[in-house]
Amino acid sequence: MKREVPLFITAAAGLLIILSFFVPHQIVSVPADFLQQTALILRAFGFVLGGVNVLLVNFDAIYKRQPGWIYKVVLVASLIATVVIGAVEGRGFLNPGTRSKWIYDNLYANMSATMFALLAFFIASAAFRAFRIRTLEAGLLAVAAIIVMLGRVPLSNLLTAWLPEWARLQALQEWILNVPQNASKRAILMGAALGVMATGLRVILGIERTYLSGEE
Amino acid sequence: MTFLEKLDRRWIFLAVGLLVLLPLLFPLALPLFVTPPVAAFVKAVDSIPDGSKVLMSCDYDPASIPEMVPMTRTALRHLLDKRCKLVITVLWTGGPGLVDRVVRQIIEKEYPDRKYGVDFVNLGYKAGDEAVMLAMGQGIVNTFPRDYQGNDTRSMPIMNGVRDYSSFPMLVNISAGYPGTKEWVQQVQARFHLPMVAGVTAVSAPEYYPYLQSHQLLGLLGGMAGAAEYEKARNEKGSATRGMDAQSLAHYFVALCILLGNLVQWTKSRRTVA
After folding, report:
1. pTM for the complete prediction?
2. Chain A residue with the nearest C-alpha to that of B210
3. Inter-chain contact B209–A182, Cβ cutoff 8 Å?
4. CA nearest B186 in A: which residue?
5. Which of A128, A132, A170 is nearest residue B260 as measured by Cβ atoms?
6. What's the Cα-to-Cα distance from B180 to each of B43, B55, B132, B171, rounded to whole Å?
7. What secondary structure does DSSP assign to chain B, as a single string?
8. Rounded distance, CA B184 to CA B57, Å?
9. How far apart are CA B173 and CA B200, in angstroms?
């Protein structure tokens, strides 16, 4: 029973959701809607679980003085401060002028954008050190990548303006994206979709049981 | 070549920094052309009947500001010029504050006659990704009983007559990844047949070309270049247009790095063989 009940619930829930795509009758749509609402509530609880997990993992690392523990102190202090300030400010904590909004606008947003902006520096460095063309396939990939990369920017419009329209970098990159890239991408999408359907069926039919206990 | 072999990467960092900074300080005004996916985006938005209620989902967070915010601004202006009423959602945890700021900046400064709750509403964030998209198909007010600031959405005039996706002529999605354009196409466009256009990051744009070719996406803005072309198509000079000079030089520098790196490797391997 310990395994059969979860398997039955999974099969019933999966079938209901699939049926709701094809059967508009309320016998199917009402329980399917209920399941969807339940999923939303469960996801919201996931944030609480995630927050508690972050605290537990980092408290443990701080207690054991693991390498970089001082940064974990900053993380835990920031997390607690943000939650407490938000809780004190109540429902309107996101309104303009609140402390929570100030933290978001002046700390979180800037730090998040900075982290992503650093990528530009590391991509250039990695392009110099790591992008090695050793095979014909890698060569083709490099040529396509360079054409697409350069064809996307206006400097290429200026530099290739003297060429016939079809030979300009912008036209070439559009062709690469529309023809060879699109063909391979579509094949990958179809393969992935078939894989998802097969996995879904395996779960609904109880063949795939790894989500229950990690066993096959 | 020995110099390049031993090149300290900090020189590369310095070069990237200067190539990005200088064009921002001294613009080059490079020529921009509107590509077919962007022209299709503009045409699709133009085809929305004036005064319609439009669903706009801004699925990104501050990490993608340079790419996503310019296209959000231009799309907002485009829709507001058509006197469309905007129902805005965010499916990224870190996004609601940013999106709220962008929307307010545009509307309060450029369209002060538009009223919150009447002409636009920010429904904010809801956890659940694809489950939220499906739940909105059953009822938008039920899925978002309160807006971003905690107001009751049922009492808002803009939500009168808004039931589900059939209440909108189009979905405008600006997305930086998951959940975003791919999920909107798979869960909403395919099932509820809601026409949609999308603005996405440059790195993910090629992923959406199959949807563009199958007309599941009626138009596509790819990265800052797409945003700049959108600005050009709308005769605006925004931050994406200004940023394209810097991006041009940075792209050429990365291409040069790939070529130089391989040249160094090639001469090194020839020396080893000799």
Report:
1. 0.91
2. A182
3. yes
4. A193
5. A128
6. 22, 14, 12, 12
7. -HHHHT--HHHHHHHHHHHHHHHHHS---------HHHHHHHHHHHTSPTT-EEEEEEE--GGGHHHHHHHHHHHHHHHHHTT-EEEEEE-STT-HHHHHHHHHHHHHHH-TT--BTTTEEEEEE-TTTHHHHHHHHH-HHHH-SB-TTS-BGGG-GGGTT--SGGG-S-EEEEESSSSSHHHIIIIIIHHH---EEEEE-TTTGGGGHHHHHTTSSS-EEEHHHHHHHHHHHTT---HHHHHHHHHHHHHHHHHHHHHHHHHHHHHHHHHHH-
8. 9
9. 8
Q: How many Å separate Cα B61 from the centre of its chain?
A: 11
The structure tokens listed for A213 are 């206990």
Q: Is B45 on the interface with A (CB under 8 A)?
A: no
Q: Is B22 on the interface with A (CB under 8 A)?
A: no
**Cα B64 from Cα A40, distance rounded (Å):** 26
Strand, coil or helix: what is A207? coil
Are A161 and B31 inside 8 Å of each other by CB?
A: yes
Give the other-Cβ count within 10 Å of A70's Cβ.
9
Q: How many residues does chain A have?
A: 216
- Structure-token pair, residue A51: 């927050």
- Degrees to nearest 5, angle at CA B55 with B50 and B57: 135
Contact predicate A177/A148, CB 8 Å = yes
Q: Per residue in A68-89, pLDDT tens?
A: 999 999 999 999 999 999 999 9
In sequence order, which residues have a C-beta less than 8 Å from that of residue B63 and are 6 or more positions away? A112, A113, A115, A116, B94, B176
Give B120-159 pLDDT, tens digit per residue.
999 999 999 999 999 999 899 999 999 998 899 999 999 9
Closest approach of A196 to chain B, Cα-based (Å): 13
Q: Which residues pair with B173 in a beta bridge?
A: B57, B198
The pLDDT-based confidence of A216 (bands split at 50, 70, 90) is: very low
